Amino acid sequence: MGKIDNKRSHFRHAIEVPILLIDENGVEHEVFTGNVSDCGLYLTVTVEQRPALGSVVQVQVMTPMGDGSAAPINRAKVMRYDSFGVGLRFLFDEE
Predict the structure, then answer these.
(1) How far is Cα 68 from Cα 79, in angstroms, rounded to an integer?
(2) I need a surface site. Which of 1, 25, 69, 77 has the fewest CB within 10 A?
(3) Using CA atoms, how far apart are residues 92 and 75, in angstroms rounded to an integer?
(4) Residue 83 in contact with residue 46, Cβ under 8 Å?
(5) If DSSP codes are grouped into helix, strand and coil, which group holds residue 56?
(6) Do the beta carbons of residue 60 and residue 71 sit within 8 Å?
(7) Strand 40-44 vs strand 85-90: parallel, antiparallel, or unpaired?
(8) 3: pLDDT confidence band, cut at 50, 70 and 90?
(9) Domain range annotation of the chain
(10) Residue 44, number of CB atoms within 10 A of its CB
(11) CA separation, residue 57 to residues 22, 72, 75, 89, 90 (Å)
(12) Is it the case that residue 1 has pLDDT exceeding 50?
């Protein structure tokens, strides 16, 4: 297998964190991150859990914050997928 040319502008942190993924139909899935960056994340999901390419989803870290409160819910757009999961780009104040 050849080297993959990574032209991404943000460094990826390989970390496994439990995530609540809410798809565009409101269906909730408990999944895990494969990596996280400042602009998005990669989630390991099954084909059945995979949201549609281009759809807007909600993601929330399932681990409580340091003060015990729930983590914020963030919006993200499905940018790509492969046989192991999906790549999401955070939607900060856009779309």
Answers:
(1) 32
(2) 1
(3) 7
(4) no
(5) strand
(6) yes
(7) antiparallel
(8) very low
(9) 18-90
(10) 15
(11) 6, 14, 6, 10, 10
(12) no
